[in-house]
Amino acid sequence: MHSFEECFKNTPNTSLAEMLKCAGVAALKAGEAIRNLYGKPHTIKQKGAIDLVTEADTASEEIILSALNDSQPGIDILSEETHSSYDKKTTGPVWIIDPLDGTTNFAHGFPWFAVSIAFSDQGRTQAGVIYNPIFDEFFCACSGSGAWLNNERIRVSEAALLKDSLLATGFPYDVQQHPGPVLASLERLLVRSRGVRRAGAAALDLAYVACGRLDGFWEIKLKPWDTAAGILLVEEAGGRVSDFRGNTYTPYLPEIVATNSHIHPEMQNLLESFSLF
């Protein structure tokens, strides 16, 4: 079991520290179940043409909901598989959960997926964890207390120019029906950066921006559970998150650009014309 010791030492708000602990324990338990199912035959259902759900998604969600309810009963739940309905912006206390971000990767045996759990209140993420069970990498953050990877504090990269930056993106589930803007924005960033990666798990992309392995990330049509934990990691690690027009981002918006702060104006300017607003 991973230690939260260093993060706790730097989280003076004891109630938030407790929320972080609850989320972390739930994520690690769920991650263990996912790891045990990895590489075995799967039961795969389709929510859409390329939107999958497996037995690992449902098993992970059951573990997380049980753990959170045992430790913090009565808090609202927003979770991808069974509690996925939400208002435009939920302002009360709520757990925002992706039990398996990167389901398609998991189903194909591609080891890039994670559990993501965020505690949100007043419309903002206050504590969040992202756990990659295959790499055994545990990312966590509390508001005002920094961001951490396996008990080591993390910071965003120092890349100052887009041309020297490694970026990441993802494609929405309706990309086959509407490929034009997605490919056009990809071309615009690809030819102006050092490279673009498309690995298929937005939560991990954001975690990698937070720890400096990536310099920037953008995507459209994500859901709250894809980004709620990751945006806190990026911000607490010194990065910046906005919509394509540079406005304040919330997980309920359909577009995101997250960077190390230095390259944010350059990326945002290039993406502005692709805004969904």
Entry summary:
With 277 residues, the chain is α+β, with helices and mostly antiparallel strands. 34% of the residues lie in helices and 24% in strands. It has two domains: 5-153, Fructose-1,6-Bisphosphatase, subunit A, domain 1 (Fructose-1,6-Bisphosphatase, Chain A, domain 1); 162-272, D-Maltodextrin-Binding Protein, domain 2 (3-Layer(aba) Sandwich).
Features:
D-Maltodextrin-Binding Protein, domain 2; seven-stranded mixed sheet; alpha+beta; 277 residues; five-stranded mixed sheet
Description of the structure:
By secondary structure, the chain is an alpha+beta fold. The protein has 2 domains: 5-153, 2-Layer Sandwich (Fructose-1,6-Bisphosphatase, Chain A, domain 1), CATH 3.30.540; 162-272, D-Maltodextrin-Binding Protein, domain 2 (3-Layer(aba) Sandwich). 34% of the residues lie in helices and 24% in strands. It is built from 8 helices and 14 strands. The strands form 3 sheets. A 7-stranded mixed β-sheet has the order 3-4-5-6-7-8-9, with helices on both faces. It has a 5-stranded mixed β-sheet with strand order 11-10-12-14-13, sandwiched between helices. A two-stranded antiparallel sheet has the order 1-2. Helix 2 (14-37) runs antiparallel to helix 3 and helix 6 (202-210) runs parallel beside helix 7 (224-236). The longest helix has 24 residues, at 14-37. The chain starts with a helix and ends in a 6-residue tail after the last helix. The mean pLDDT is 92.
